[in-house]
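To: structure desk
From: M.T.
Subject: fold request, one chain
Message: Could you run this one when you get a chance? Sequence is below, nothing fancy, just the single chain.
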Amino acid sequence: MKRALLLLCMTLAVGAQGAPLLPTSDAQVIETLAAPAGDRAEERALRRQHQAKPGDAAVAVALARNYLEQAHREGDPRFAGRALAALQHWAQTSDAPPAVLLMRATVLQYLHQFDTAAQLLEGLAQRQPAMAQAWLTLATIRRVQGRYADSDRACAGLTAAGATLYAQACQAENDGLRGQFDSARMRFNQLLTTRLDGGARNWLLTSVAELEARAGRSAQAEQAYRAALSAQSDDYTRLSFADFLMLQSRDAEALALLSGQPRSDAVLLRLAIAGQRTSAPAARNDVRELRERIAQANQRPGAAASHAREQAMFALWIDAQPARALELARANVKLQREAIDLLLLAQAAKASGQEAAQQEATLLSQTVGLKDARHELLR
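Reply: Done. Structure tokens follow.
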């Protein structure tokens, strides 16, 4: 459903009506960060407009979105701090236009401040019940937190808002996580028979692929991943497919899949893991670069907690330190409880050899309500 956030932003008209370092104004330079030339030109234009009209919600939201896209691309939360600063004209939530509240919540979601983001979205959805994007983002956040019942309620809000495709996909995602594989698969397949653009088809097929992986149907999962990338290639699908391949010890294929992709932290992590396993020529440099990035990120307040998933994977698969990986995986599930997070906790618990930790991982999955056949392979 993360891909759905961007898709819905493109298809719905939204009216204008460990904290990062925040500048006191958008003009204040804290640090110069690299960005592609085209993005820098767009950013400069938006900054000029924003400085001229700081109360223009459309410009502020566009500037914040530009920064957030850079944060995603670079894996650098400092851009998210700039995004929040671009919205500071509306310091009081009660005075903020809906589009500003939505963007603020989306940035907070990126920063893993899920409860604060959800609180904003719940208030926004009450004010603007027809704003489908608010419901979709809220559903996604509650799902990330492992709060499926709350996510269901937000999915129902999508139905009331008239976003039928997204509402049905939203509920199918939740049903699939609960282990209702057949009904969820049927609903996704029905949606795939409708007329869709490449981005929407990619999103639905990737959801099917992840469902099939959790159902233990590897052949069907791989088929869906390849169909998703054929419909439209995107970073999320490639990363998810790479994780799928590496779980099956198909590391060389994962390397080939990610070769030539922008070296975000998530991509570099997979390159380092798969490269080390296959003794790839670039593996040593990839591991060193990733270690340096982690050390640098940990100097920022709250970074260790918000990047605990990636650091747990690094500790488990690169450094072979299962006790450290377990510690980080435990910290991670305090923030986010997606299927990948609960699987990582189970993997770290198994590698640690601690029976109590393995029972803890099993109990957490049961408490959340997640059904994932991949856990059975660890027992």
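Reply (cont.): The CA atoms of residues 71 and 119 lie 23 Å apart. Let me know if you need anything else for the meeting.
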